[in-house]
Amino acid sequence: MLAPSSLALILAACADSGGLGGRSALDDLDIPEENLRPVNYSVGSGDPEKLAAFAVAHNPSIKALRHKAERMEARAPQAASLPDPNASISVGSLPETAAGRVEAMVGVSQKIPLPGKRAAASRAASLEAAAIRSEADSLALKISEQVKSAWWDYYLANQTIAYTNENRVLLTTIRDIVTTRVEAGAATQADQLRIGNEITMLDRDLVSLRQVRSSAIARINSLLNRPAGASLPSPSAPSVPATGSLNSLIARAEANHPDISAANSRTDAFAQRLRKAKLEKFPDPTVGLTYAPVSGSGLSPVSNGRDQVFATLGFNIPLWREPRKAMVREASEGMAETRAMLESSRSDLRYRVEDAYFRAKTARDVIALFNDRLIPSAQQAYDVTLTGYSSGKNSFTDVIGTQRELLAYRLQLVQSRAQLGKAIATLQAAAAL
Asked: How far apart are CA 155 and CA 64, in angstroms?
């Protein structure tokens, strides 16, 4: 009999070892194990640009988005392919024709979606994957900005410690001068006590500054996915790039930033879904072929046992309109949503670029002011006052006042440098430089 053998053949073809309790399909996949745990790798000279590159390369969140994009891209060929064909077999009390008794009926059918549906669904999946890749690029820019900002905190703390230690050495020199004058009867012990308090206050500041430096190092290691306590090279002031014109930076941000690319890709993806939703109101044809073996020993004397082969054509009836209208409405609202998000991203980028641009400009002006005028004048005033105190022309209060002013200006200079570096980091991230 053909029917039992055909049934066995179909069941054998449909069964797989995974579904019958054998090896899982996942067992056959070669998925590499990525080391996402913190690793104490070398960071070279510790330049902020290189540190940012290391952070992007080792950040688990960026890796997750890259994998997500590949996962979404894998949906494109799924959406573009035809659905699996259907096979059927009929056995039992089948009708008897003039040619003889029908022993069984075996058929196969294939649904063929209307042209354009599969292409639109596949294109939507690819565009969604592109949007996620852009999100990964945007996250990379944010991580780079955070690394550079943390590095400038590290630089500021380190330089402040260096200046404070230098100032402590200066106070030690002043203390020796005070001691000499006290021994000569030209100064009082109150001056000695005051200089001692000044040195103690600097020691207090150094304790706090070391904690700030440790926190900055911890933040950098966290962003670089390095273990806690990993060492970093001492920071040295790098050259700060020029900013360019404000209008060109804003234009670049609106044209090239990954947030803009992501919003555009999602808008196009919803446009493809809208196209497919509008096609859903049309039926999808289903073509088939059926084979029916016929026995030659039928009741009719003219039975010839000729097998039957015939084709079928069917289609679904898109009767329920409300779900299809909802699909169109969903895609349309999705397009409106992503367009609004696009304008929001552009507005935010314009603000970030403009704010960072003027912060950088102000920091540059302040740096020039300190370098060209304030610090040289404060240094000269301190030198003159210290010389005058040694000869008895100036009071100890004058010396401490000029010394504090010089230290304050030097610290404000390094703070301005750090502010400039942070502003440039924000500018680079916002303008996608």
From this structure: 31
pLDDT > 50? residue 116: yes
Distance CA 128, CA 140 (A): 19
Task: Give bridge partners of residue 96 from the DSSP assignment.
Answer: 101
Question: How many Å apart are CA 365 and CA 413, to the nearest integer?
Answer: 11
Structure tokens at 108: 């196969």
Which tens digits make up the pLDDT trace of 219-255? 999 999 988 888 888 888 777 777 788 999 999 999 8
Query: Considering the domain 49-81+119-282+318-430, what is its CATH architecture?
Result: Up-down Bundle (1.20)
pLDDT over 70, % of the chain: 88
Q: Which residues contact 358 (CB under 8 A, 6 or more apart)?
A: none
User: In what helix (H) or strand (E) does residue 395 lie, and over which residues does it extend?
Assistant: none
The Cα–Cα gap between 100 and 216 comes to 90
Q: How many CB atoms lie within 10 A of CB 248?
A: 11
Express each pLDDT in 315-356 by its tens digit: 888 888 898 899 999 999 999 999 999 999 999 999 999 999
Q: 3-class DSSP state for residue 4?
A: helix
d(Cα 342, Cα 257) in Å, to the nearest integer? 11
Q: What is the mean pLDDT of residues 198-214?
A: 91
Q: How far apart are CA 363 and CA 276, in angstroms?
A: 54
Is residue 285 exposed (0-12), middle (13-18) or buried (19+ Cβ within 10 Å)?
middle
Distance CA 15, CA 10 (A): 9
* Residue ranges with strand state E in 4-143: 86-90, 96-97, 100-101, 105-111
- Spell out the domain ranges in the chain: 49-81+119-282+318-430, 87-112+285-312
Residue 26 DSSP code = G
For the cut 90, the answer to whether the pLDDT of residue 216 exceeds it is: yes
Using CA atoms, how far apart are residues 181 and 427, in angstroms rounded to an integer?
Answer: 54
Q: pLDDT-derived band of residue 184, with 50, 70 and 90 as boundaries?
A: confident
Closest CA to 96 of 291, 303, 290: 303
Rounded Cα distance, 134 and 67, in Å: 13
The C-alpha atoms of residue 235 and residue 153 are separated, in whole angstroms, by: 10
Show the CA angle centred on residue 61, arms to residues 59 and 66, nearest 5°.
100
**Is a pLDDT exceeding 90 seen at residue 32?**
no
